[in-house]
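User: structure tokens for this one?
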Amino acid sequence: MEQEFEVKDTSVEETLANGTTAANADHFKSAGDIAIDQRVKKKAKRLIKQGSKEGVPNGTNVVNVARSWKNTRRPRNGHARGLPKKGGAGGKGVWGKPGSEIAEEAIDKNDPNYDSDSMENDDIVLEPIIHEPSDEELKKSIESIVLEYYEHGDSEEAALSLEELNILTKKHLITQIAIELALDHKPSHREMTSVLISDLYGRLIKQKDIAAGFDVLLKNLSDLKLDTPDADTVLGNFLARAIADDCVPPKLITTFKSSIDNEPAQASLSRADMLLSMKNGMHRLDNVWGIGGGLRPVKSLVRQMHLLLQEYLSSGDAAEATRCLLELEVPHFHHELVYEAVVATLEAINPTVEAAILKLLASLSAAVIVTPDMMERGFQRVFDDMNDIVLDVPLAQTVLERFVEATTKAKIISENLAKQIPIRARKRFVSEGDGGRFKDSF
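Assistant:
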């Protein structure tokens, strides 16, 4: 159909090119020629429109449209998968099929860098090189892992995190940094550090790594004492606990005594030797850091609070009393300290004791070590037990009123709590005819 149209279209153009005007051409045409001419024009318009849809600009000759699409590689049906040829591996100047750079390349003997001797020998073994972090990088990483371990308490998670550090020749840093951090933390964290060292033994660290860590700590003990005055005692406890956990042999103490001669290290080693030489020392070392606050029996906590107050009243050192209270790690039981302090004030009936207890409670309240809730709960317990306290201390009611007024002025307790103080009913003697008995007043 296209070829037929091209011939007819050419005959019309030749007629017009021979000098015949469009009007004369129409004049000489018969009715049949006019119908044919109209069909030809409609055909031409249809082909031009089809060519424009396929990417050919309007006005292009129909013959050129057919020729330009003759050798095209685009699909004739108008549908394509949209994929590159040969999966992206064909064509000039391309990088090849995606993923081909990972595949093992064939050995080319024509390569200028080809070495037949190195490739044919079977004694050449290629091994990957694992980069070990520097000391500073390891210290930062281990420190963050240990501090995170203090939060969650999962030694398995800490072990997995330490294994990811690729520590090859510097495993003694684990013991060294963990104990250095524990020196600045409370006894419960020191207990967790001993547990961590015991759990890592045989899995990530060995005896020589733990011994090397203690060796560095003992040599640097003079510097550690600047930040932690009792570092020699604490380090001796760590060494004795490691021996009790079978992480290092007992003879390590003798080895350190002969190789390290500084005074703090000798004191620390003597401390460890003394703990191990006690009767049932191996078993007692399980509690060398004490029992956690949540595990202590109530009677033990009450006794500790009572001893703390007795020591404070004899020394007057509020800072030391605060430190001892924090070491107990029982913030939920601080109301017992408030109760014991107020009862001790009522039993003493001494202005000096009242002033000392008021100073201690004010210090604990200002530092928010004893929360307002615990303070209120302790005073409320005293108010509830006043009937029994008055039987032993008749003047306890008067002392309590005076002490509550002082604590209210110091803003230790609220005014609402002060209004809840029990008021003892006043009593008077009736007439002698009543036999001297007491009568309640109205």
